[in-house]
Amino acid sequence: ISVSNFPVSWSLPPSGRCPGCGLPMNTVVLFVPQQEAWIVERMGRFHRILEPGLNFLIPLLDRVRYVQSLKEIVIDVPEQSAVSLDNVTLQIDGVLYLRILDPFKASYGVEDPEYAVTQLAQTTMRSELGKLTLDKVFRERESLNSNIVHSINQASDDWGIRCLRYEIKDIHVPPRVKESMQMQVEAERRKRATVLESEGTRESAINVAEGRKQAQILASEGEKAEQINKAAGEAQAVLAKAEAKAKAIRLLSEALAEQNGNAAASLSVAEQYVSAFSNLAKESNTILLPSNTGDISGMVSQAMTIYGSLAKTSPRTPAGVEETSEDLLSPSGSPPEQRTQ
Predict the structure, then answer these.
(1) What's the CA gap between 112 and 100, in Å, rounded?
(2) 231-256 pLDDT tens trace
(3) What totals of helices (H) and strands (E) does the chain contain, helices first?
């Protein structure tokens, strides 16, 4: 008993025949390899399909007519020309992946499955390319492949063949079109560069303006804070001066209430009088002087008289004291006179 190892039928001539000694011989006992289907005819008519493993045939009556491979098969689709939607001639080739699902239909449904599928792939590819422009052909290759597979499967169902996928290998464009595409790409790149440069300039100007705005805001806020601090400082200074003056007045009042307070007040008035006369005519030529300028004791007595009058009337009139014309007169009874030096 001999065992035949027949090769895959896609490399055979049409109808799976191998002239000479290619087909397995009927030796009653046959061993079919895995992932192969042998079509057996009895007296010239289809009888059955031998499954992988041990099989028995009747000599002279049974004959192995076709050998089909159930593995995934790869077929190179020859290069062909196609015209796109924008009238550009392209040279395209591809690779087709398929598998036989029904060995009976693959053997009796079509004379040469490989040739039929190849021609169907080429015609379908030309038809699909005619629906797309050149730019979309490069961008939508995946969609183009799926459309070709779908169209092939619709026609190959009667052949027992299932197209798994189709891949475009190379797309060749005419030299002039290629040069135009390169020029278009360069122009697009220059355009993008110009747009990016303009956007950079705009962003820079916006950033500079925003920086100036923030600087002005911060400067105004700083000036505002400075003015607030200055006003608060001045208010505190005025309050401190007022408190110091009130304290000084309180201390002066306490000092005057003590023994010999009038004598101390007279001494202070005399010192201020002398100091005032030392600054005469330093700031202006017009000076208002009393008639008895040299009488220091008289001036001191007049000042003390005014102080005594205010001290006596202050308990009775806390809101203020009205001064009489006699109190404001000089000790000699004459009003002050204006002199020009």
Answers:
(1) 13
(2) 999 999 999 989 888 888 888 777 77
(3) 7, 10
